[in-house]
Q: What sequence folds into this?
């Protein structure tokens, strides 16, 4: 379905990013994974069947990100599919949130999307097909207590998605956001550790508490998110742009 297309996945070393990267590879794309953790990225790339490669850069650093992406474009051609997945979540009550925490959350969750998209888009515009998928969160569609910076950043991602979709509506490029609920990833494990340390719950109790936010009473899997991404990358999704799609078992309707 995607044979010969160059796909770039940020944060592709684990969790949702890894699942999407592997799904794109299975669909025939040549996948590049970009992030800071070279070992995890290489582990993902080693599982590819269609080549692909690794680019190491901090996506909050515009110059380093641009240089890494330029190198991958030189090696594999213009990026036709961009998955902006890199992100992180830190918790703090608003009145105790430090300036550094605020800046980190905005940088990694929102500014990174701008940095990577700016680096990819000029060459993508020269193609007859393009897909930009921003992995946001249900936090981009609703509020959650104690993660105000993360929520603000993810709302920004959804807003950026809609604005860019309109700007590119007369081109072959579509721009959409995926908004997973609580998903079984390393980030979720970190959230559970925080809950355990602050509340005294056991890890199992904390996991069950998070799952309760999903009306289906479970956590989302990275593979479920990857299948939604794969559909948006396919030829039958041309009319879908500017959408923020919740993958959350009915938590957001």
A:
């Amino acid at each position: 379905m995607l044979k010969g297309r160059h796909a770039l996945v940020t944060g592709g070393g684990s969790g949702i990013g890894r699942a999407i990267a592997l799904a794109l590879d299975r669909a025939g794309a040549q996948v590049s994974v970009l992030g800071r953790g070279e070992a995890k990225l290489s582990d993902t790339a080693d599982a590819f069947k269609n080549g692909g490669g690794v680019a190491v850069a901090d996506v909050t650093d515009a110059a380093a990100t641009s240089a890494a992406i330029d190198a991958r474009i030189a090696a594999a051609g213009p990026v036709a599919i961009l998955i902006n997945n890199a992100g992180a979540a830190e918790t703090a009550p608003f009145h105790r949130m430090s300036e550094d925490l605020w800046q980190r959350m905005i940088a990694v969750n929102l500014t990174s999307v701008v940095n990577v998209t700016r680096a990819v888009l000029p060459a993508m515009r020269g193609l007859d097909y393009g897909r930009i998928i921003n992995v946001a969160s249900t936090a981009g569609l609703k509020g959650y207590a104690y993660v105000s910076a993360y929520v603000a950043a993810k709302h920004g991602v959804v807003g950026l998605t809609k604005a860019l979709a309109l700007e590119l509506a007369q081109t072959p490029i579509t721009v959409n956001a995926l908004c997973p609920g609580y998903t079984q990833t390393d980030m979720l494990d970190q959230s559970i550790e925080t809950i355990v340390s602050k509340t005294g719950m056991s890890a199992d109790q904390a996991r069950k508490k998070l799952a309760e936010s999903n009306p289906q009473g479970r956590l989302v899997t990275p593979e479920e998110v990857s299948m939604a991404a794969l559909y948006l990358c396919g030829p039958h999704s041309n009319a879908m742009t500017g959408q923020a799609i919740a993958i959350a078992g009915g938590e957001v309707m």
DSSP finds eight helices and seven strands in the chain. Helices lie at 15-26, 38-46, 62-76, 99-124, 148-167, 186-199, 203-211, 222-233.
